[in-house]
Amino acid sequence: MPVFYPSQEINILIKHFPEEILSKGKASESIKPVKNKLHKAISLFPFDPNTLNKAGWEKLGLSDKQAQVIINYRNKGGKFFKKEDLRKIYSLDSMKVQELLPYVIISKTEERSSFTNIEYPKEKNFRFKKAPEIIELNSSDSIGFISLNGIGPVYSKRIIKFREALGGFVRLEQISEVYGIPAETYVAILPYLKLDLSLVKKIDINSVNVNDLGKHPYIKYKRARTIINYRDQHGPFKSLSDLRNIHSLDEEFFSKIELYLEFR
């Protein structure tokens, strides 16, 4: 039979009930699940950069952003013809490229790839040219650029305007950044381009003012202000490694800008 206690006895029982049992319910409510930070497992394996998907790049240790840069590059018509072409991906630092190079396999199809079957978009009042000469990007005038298949007066002016804003080209692949140039045109003219890095106008990072620094297409005013403020607080930059102390600047930024800077 059930036993009924007077209310006074119940209160006495509760008073003497072990605290840890009474608090058990409250404690369980306060416990919140802790999310474990899962680190992606990095594995190195042979791969073709022309066909590897985004998930594959991430398995090799690339971030989501780095992998997407490569996918975007390929979607625009960019190709890897030799292992060293990995270096033209701005989002990859030199150490990561060195780590990946031994595993790169370029298919023979890409190695033998020719550009003879590419259809080039036409500009108004523009005719195709034959056998263009090799063009030096940092010294050529508009006539030189127009001699390239797929480049007419409009694109020629844009190339020169972009070159002046940069202070010169430091990589052939920068042509793909010129506004409006189709990916297939970029791929077609790439073999006919060369670079003279001695013609690049360097930025003295220890004397430039914020307005001039902010005019560079890869820096802009917000980054320029951050850099100058840091310089004012900590003194002149001795090398690129000093700039890396500015945590808001990422590796993609450094890979783009390092060849434009000088430290006096």
UniProtKB/TrEMBL annotation:
It holds the Pfam family HHH_3. Signal peptide: none annotated. InterPro entries: Endo/Exo/Phosphatase_dom_1, RuvA_2-like. PANTHER family: ENDONUCLEASE/EXONUCLEASE/PHOSPHATASE FAMILY DOMAIN-CONTAINING PROTEIN 1, ENDONUCLEASE_EXONUCLEASE_PHOSPHATASE FAMILY DOMAIN-CONTAINING PROTEIN 1. This is DNA uptake protein ComE. It comes from Sphingobacterium cellulitidis.
